[in-house]
Amino acid sequence: LVNMTLVRNASALGAFCLDGSLPAYHLHRGFGGGARNWLLQFEGGGWCNSIKSCLDRANTRRGSTRYMSKWEVFSGILSNNASLNPDFYNWNRVKLRYCDGASFAGDAVYKNGTSLLYFRGQKIWEAIILDLLPKGLGQARKALLSGSSAGGLSSFLHCNNFTKYLPSTASVKCLSDAGFFLDERDISSNHTMRSFVKDVVSLHGLEKNLDENCTASSLNFPELCFFPQYALKFITPPFFILNSAYDVYQFHHILVPPSADPQGHWNRCKLNPAACNPQQLNTLQEFRRDMIVAMGLSYKYSRRGGFFINSCFGHGQSESQDSWFAADSPRVHNRTIAEAVGDWYFSRRATKEIDCPYPCETTCINLIPSTQALLQDLRSY
Fold first, then answer.
1. From the candidates 211, 311, 315, 318, which is the catalytic residue?
2. pLDDT band at 301, cuts 50/70/90?
């Protein structure tokens, strides 16, 4: 359990959570050979794309540090146990709490006389970094910027900027876990996710914080640079993508959102892949193919990039000890996620692992997730 640190100077920068509370992080100090190495992990938790959804969010732990747990369990990639996290256990490990609703990237304020919302994710990111620099981050030798889900998307959005704060001699790399959200049509051929992202970008004043080279190449649709598949080629530091080819969040909200399946034909398939009919399975396989194609150029040509794309039906694998590094963890070509990420970061060997398609995989913990576990997972969004 690691205690919360409020960023006391955040108000001077105008960095506030949705409800106006101060942003926060959890820091567990490194030791020994890792004392000057830093791992920063963005917390995930979806997005809000309207005033109503953001007002609702502001009254929860997703929009206010007032409602957050003041102590966080550090496990998986954040563990300080060498047998559970062999490559990063003795680093300085930081969890950046998520309370802005737009992957730490917005910069706007909403006021209508009765309601006040701060869309200040970019400022929260800057305030936390500035708070950490004098605590040792400014003298980092090695650094890894990581995150899961919406936090995994944050890694794409902030990877280039992260390097500017660190010494030029530092080894800086970035990792996204379950953050490669696809710009994909749903089963009704509608751009549901693209429309959602456009609303997020517009509401949060986010466009100016997207990569300038990317937005310049997408003049008519700058919001597309919120999607990793368009931003990836503009990222300079080495980047590692950890994702399921059948990511449960994307399956349920991008590929088959409720609006595209009003009759509920996909309900059984959503809760149990073994209940999918042949046509539904084919749709899932096409989604997997599109994800791999979207990563294709980087996969083929990047010598410094890394991939671990497995076929588990889950969402987020880096902070769960079971999936990160355990006796029965998911494996691709007999390598766990922790081993693959460590091999990539320390350049021990190339890591570009793509699993065979469902249902051939046998090492997944959540290959067929239970109804209860899946519903609990989805309620957090």
1. 315
2. low
